[in-house]
Task: structure prediction
Amino acid sequence: MTNYSNLTIKSVRELFTNGELSARELVAHYQEEIKKKDPELNAYREVFDDAFKAAEEADKKIKEGETPRALEGIPFAIKDNILIKGKMAGASSKILEGYTASYDATVIEKLREEGAIFLGRTNMDEFAMGSSTENSAYGATKNPYDVSRVPGGSSGGSAVAVAGDMALAALGSDTGGSIRQPAAFCGVVGLKPTYGAVSRSGLIAMASSLDQVGPITKSVRDAEIIFDVIRGRDDLDSTSLEAKLPSGRSASKTIGVPREYFSLKEMGKEGLEEGIAKKFQESIEFFKAKGFEIKEVSLPSVDYALAAYYIVMPAEVSANLSRFDGIRYGSRAEGKNLLEVYAKTREKGFGPEARRRVILGAYVLSAGYYDAYYARAQKVRYMIRKDFENEFKNVDLLLTPTTPHPAFKIGEKVSDPLSMYLEDIYTVPINLAGVPAISVPFGTIEKEGKNLPVGIQLIAPWHEERRLFEAGKILEEK
Ligand code: GLN
Result:
């Protein structure tokens, strides 16, 4: 009997080649689980009907003795903002209702070339704006560890699909934490690659200078396998880069703990919940015991990271969302003239959070305010980048909690945008700097009789994802 909840890409490959499991059986299993659990969890926006066909093709190849490709027969869940040719894509927004993708995102093309199967598309905060998946126009997704709590966001559907055994792996996108935070809340692994490491072509843009696509998986090794498939320079994304990653051990020795938010002496302050602070301390001790040197480091500018993020991000959002005018994509409202068509389409199509950010973004870019807000935020961003650059001269990796709290209650923060924004405090600086980071599950803490997962975040210098995988694998041994 296959124990489905312990499967990883590696173990599935072995089962496939030994003939103990077929891709068809695996797809059937996930579809069965989706039928059972998803009416309550709401991880999927749509389950595709052609996964079986793809599974049969994979099985045929494996039977014929062809060496299986890296992701042969591996069933994926895909966030609703990543285009799959011929499938609907909506970024969980009403404004894209009825839109069908006319091409594959580069990441999808790459997964396909390695034999991956697509089970369906997953729920998210509208246009990836949020930390709870409550901003979806299609209802909140629920956390499988406690259905009264959020799964995090914006890639909440993808994290729940993996955590709830409704897919073996998933793709999400991360602009300020949207892969790592839901991964932490749901007890799975989430990787935000170096900015530019993975092509953004075919990702519905939120804030283009911050967005990255990455994997959500059951193990660090699985995240590594997927990263190696999707990464690389792409002519369709001029910000993408071909980085030469070291293949062997990078032998990280020193880990920095940034004093500003995670001071060893002052833990428990700055909104960091005590239970998480304890787990974080435990992770530090764990690395020490494994022979790592722990150093206290300083990133003085990260104090301003959230403020800078909530200027730079909405500025880019307001520009990126201007293309949704009712003419080119998705749904359209009728009006007396063109201007009215635009206005009515956008009024009906965008939810409150999307509208809030478009307005904020237009404001910080407007004549007279540009210098005071946008230009200044860009300077702060540069300083944050410098802080990371400086500290990475002294340490190989940085360590932080992924989130200040475990999963919060559905409805708890949705009417208070500021407290929702504060949830991103540990993840946002990484996107501003462009460095890679991974959230690795590190046990659970008990709340109201439920065990809620905790995520620990490892951060590496630009294009040093290998260090994350290496240290992440050590951390997950625990
Ligand atoms: N929660 C953050 C926000 O609301 C990050 C979102 C993201 O990474 N897509 O902007």
Q: What stands out?
A: The chain has a mean pLDDT of 94.
